[in-house]
Amino acid sequence: MQLASLTSLFDSHDYDLDDVAEGRRDVPPIFVRSLPPDWRAMKAKKRKRAFVKTVLPLILKANARIRAERAKLLDLIAAADGDLSRLPEARRGDIERLAKRYRTEPDDLDTLKRRADIVPVSLALAQAANESAWGTSRFAREGNALFGQWTWDAEDGIAPKDPQADKGDYTVRAFDSLGHSVAAYMNNLNTHPAYADFRERRARLRKAGKPLSGVSLAGGLLKYSQRGADYVAEIREMIRYNDFQSLEQARLAIVPLG
């Protein structure tokens, strides 16, 4: 899909970010597989808005799946009442499948509950924009890689032109689609030991009945980049500067596109 076709598609569905932020319109379920080959032809300001329009539905879709899994998990935990043997075999199988997806043991329900949770829209948007340079990076254009995730399997990634020293033969993981990149990023935050602090912060907000704040939870990503605290500060500033908080309550429209 060329850039003109993508922007025309957005316009044909009255996809306006200001309307979404103000709650006047839900996000149309437009799921773009790859960025247009002429993506960099846009001026920076228009490209940033087009990037948000492209990535936002993918974030909402990935979070919707996680939200459904979390709701199922909480129902199962309530039904078990501390004893998984009380559950019918089929429902124990549901627990086992969720535990496998979130890389924990089926009887470790506390850990599973901390892992099966959403990533704030504002945080995902800021990291996608930062890691992919608003979709202009070679990894985003050639490998649908929005979040700079590494892999040591050369067949799964794209080799950087200037690899970091002493990090081995890593590549940047490539994906079949932008949606797969978003889903893998969320799974990474929800399962990798490096982001245990992120999950603990999120769990504390849940327990306190507070909204999941991208600015707050960014503090749990010190290990996402070798830049540590500077990276966290940059992500927080991107959230604030681009007013990504205004999109936290965005929802996918449930009507099919015409």
What this model shows, in words?
The protein is built from eleven helices and three strands. The two termini are 18 Å apart. It has helices at residues 3-12, 17-21, 44-80, 89-101, 109-115, 121-132, 138-143, 178-191, 196-207, 214-217, 229-241; strands at residues 150-151, 157-158, 171-173. It has a three-stranded antiparallel β-sheet with strand order 1-3-2. With 258 residues, the protein is an all-alpha fold. Pfam families: Glucosaminidase (PF01832). GO terms for molecular function: amidase activity.
Quick synopsis:
The chain is mainly α and 258 residues long. The chain has helices spanning 3-12, 17-21, 44-80, 89-101, 109-115, 121-132, 138-143, 178-191, 196-207, 214-217, 229-241; strands at residues 150-151, 157-158, 171-173. The chain contains 11 helices and 3 strands.
Write the layout of secondary structure elements.
Blueprint (H helix, E strand, L loop, with lengths): L2 H10 L4 H5 L22 H37 L8 H13 L7 H7 L5 H12 L5 H6 L6 E2 L5 E2 L12 E3 L4 H14 L4 H12 L6 H4 L11 H13 L17
Antiparallel strand pairs: 1-3, 2-3
Helix pairs in contact: 3-6, 3-8, 6-11
Protein name: Mannosyl-glycoprotein endo-beta-N-acetylglucosamidase-like domain-containing protein
Pfam families: Glucosaminidase
GO molecular function: amidase activity
**Can you tell me the CATH topology?**
Lysozyme
What structural class do you assign from the helix and strand content? mainly alpha
Q: Mean of the pLDDT scores? A: 94
Going by CATH, the architecture would be: Orthogonal Bundle
Quickly name the level 1 CATH class: Mainly Alpha
Uncertain ranges: none
Strand share of the residues? under 5%
Principal-axes geometry comes out as globular
